Task: structure prediction
Amino acid sequence: MKTGCSAGIFASFAAQRFGPIDRVVATPLSGGLESCGISRVDVTFPQRGQERGASFVAKRLWGRGLRELNAYRALDASGGPPVAPRLLGVHRETPDEAYLFLEWIPAARRWPWVDEDATSAVIRRLAQLHTRPVRNFRSGFDDPNIEREIEASAAETAALYHRLPLARSRAGATAMGQTIDRVAGEMSAMRAYLKAGTGIAPLHGDVHSGNVVIRAGAKDIDAVLLDWGRARLGSPLEDVSSWLQSLALWEPRVKRRHDTLLKRYIEWSGPAHRLDREFRRLYWLAAASNAMAGALRYHLAVTGDKGRTDAARNRSAGAARDWLRIIRRADKYWRQADGSGRRSVPLQNAVHRSATP
Ligand SMILES: Nc1ncnc2c1ncn2[C@@H]1O[C@H](COP(=O)(O)OP(=O)(O)O)[C@@H](O)[C@H]1O
Ligand SMILES: [Mg+2]
Result:
């Protein structure tokens, strides 16, 4: 065993699965502080007189992160096209800590998103997930604390914005500060309106390029969604806007082809729906919710982190400005609704008939 990370646990899972093991090598997969958090595990073992090899992923979950285990179990039980890696096993360390063992998905390319077909394959996967019956996901995806956490996260994003020089250095910064406070304060009403407008569906909840792999060696383009720790029931447009908006930050062609990609989602998710004014309004509300719940905060944090390179900070400052634009747009749509910033009558036009409970 190469690293000290949970050596015994990985080896005993491997032995259960493959029989006596010759060698186990664990390589950390993300460079985060928690270097034992997620590893690729390569094992070799004898089989019919030959040396065989196999790989799997081991991910340590604890506290709120244990939601990911519930999400995998719900996905496993729900059947349908494979949107996630296969769950191979679970080792429950304590009631508050577990290891997930997942299928290793070899990536076809490091950055496949220059190819529109790869970007579309993710949209198709999202449509396949969102049109699964909500009742199959009630146990794994329906955490009563999630809405509260999203609202708290939006308030933290607004607070961080005010602490950074970005909030003072630019023309219009005061107005932006007011907008961000207003959107944080209205988050709960906006999200209720959004969900009433689109209907609810099982969501991945954190769709960005770091959480998707295009599988190497597949006949057709096979997009696999990783990292289900924020899976929940919500508006399908949260996932769709998360994917398209986060990718558009780095991939200009996604920006140019935005409406074509959005139309593909509408087509693949079932019921006929036009890309009309109300659909767009809901889409931007979903995008602003994502920004406030995490995407903007992440880039604000990088922008203000003196430990990062200038290049990384500048890139994140640009991304933060894009998210701020989205928040401004959503705020404008929201306030246009009836002039008071509140809409009490939810829309009836469910985008996802099959996804409504
Ligand atoms: N099953 C898997 N197959 C291939 N690569 C994976 C798999 N799971 C995770 N990874 C890689 O590890 C990285 C971190 O995994 P992720 O589950 O997103 O952890 P985190 O919660 O730290 O973001 C991913 O961006 C991906 O590159
Ligand atoms: Mg991740």
Q: What stands out?
A: The pocket of magnesium ion (ligand 2) is lined by residues 210-211, 227 (CB under 6 Å). The beta strands are 23-28, 38-47, 50-62, 87-94, 97-103, 201-203, 212-214, 223-225, 232-234. Residues 344-357 have pLDDT under 50 and may be disordered. The chain has two domains: 7-103, 112-355.
